[in-house]
Write a structure and sequence with these properties.
By secondary structure, the protein is of the alpha/beta class. It has one domain: Rossmann fold (3-Layer(aba) Sandwich), CATH 3.40.50. The strands form two sheets. The chain has a seven-stranded mixed β-sheet, sandwiched between helices. A four-stranded antiparallel β-sheet has the order 2-3-11-10. Strand 7, helix 3 and strand 8 form a beta-alpha-beta unit. Helix 1 crosses helix 2. The longest helix is centred in the N-terminal third of the chain and has 18 residues. The termini are far apart. 30% of the residues are buried. The structure holds inosinic acid.
Length: 195
């Protein structure tokens, strides 16, 4: 499996499909088939890497719920699930820079192989916070799977083990990702049309 699909230098190819939320227009960027085939590849890789253990996926609410459901179905070895919730952007398109834990995990993580499942890593502040928080439970291993990564926006020292797509530093919605809580139900991912 390729380590990631790097779209950062590719021209942003948009088709004609558009959606409008809260007065802003978005154009389709990654269609459902493209997302699903990449999620299947990630699931295969994770299945191979965790063949000898039973990992626990820690899904980051709310945005990662859809990706987590598809990724878990693409993993063909035993695995468990739990959820964590951090503070979100609210209705903003840029990070506030402050992260709080709104819901902690319920499962016992000590000695477990923990895989954080996230929708998108932007500045990396949330992921950095979460890795530190989960490390306090003394897991046997702690890795990260994120569907999207904006590498040009992220602090360089953050390790991401499984990355679906590396994308430009533009605001995206759909497939669980929201804009003021809307648009999570879109099967495709759309990008803000800045024109
Ligand atoms: P970070 O802390 O800046 O890396 O932001 C992480 C969180 O911000 C993600 O879990 C998302 O909930 C949200 N986020 C970051 N970029 C976007 C985006 O382009 N669209 C929607 N939500 C985003």
């Amino acid at each position: 499996m390729p380590a990631t699909r790097d779209l950062t230098d590719a021209p942003v190819e948009l088709d004609d499909a558009t959606v409008t939320y809260r007065g802003d227009r978005f154009r389709r960027y990654l269609d459902a088939d493209t997302i699903q085939s990449r999620v299947a590849e990630m699931g295969q890789q994770i299945s191979a890497d965790y063949a000898d253990t039973t990992p626990i996926l820690v899904s980051v609410l709310n945005g990662a719920f859809m990706f987590t459901a598809d990724l878990m179905r693409a993993i063909n070895t035993d695995c468990e699930i739990d959820f964590i919730k951090l503070s979100s952007y609210g209705a903003a398109k840029v990070s506030s820079g402050e992260v709080h834990e709104l819901k902690s995990v319920d499962a016992e993580l000590e000695g477990r192989d923990v895989l954080i499942v996230e929708d998108i890593v932007d500045t990396g502040l949330s992921m950095d916070f979460m890795k530190g928080r989960l490390q306090e439970y003394n897991p046997a291993s702690l890795r990260v799977a994120t569907l999207l990564h904006k590498p040009t926006a992220t602090e360089p020292d953050l390790t991401l083990d499984y990355v679906g797509f590396q994308i430009p530093d533009l605001f995206v919605i759909g497939y669980g990702l929201d804009y003021g809580q809307l648009a999570r139900n879109l099967a495709d991912i759309y990008i803000l049309d800045e024109d």
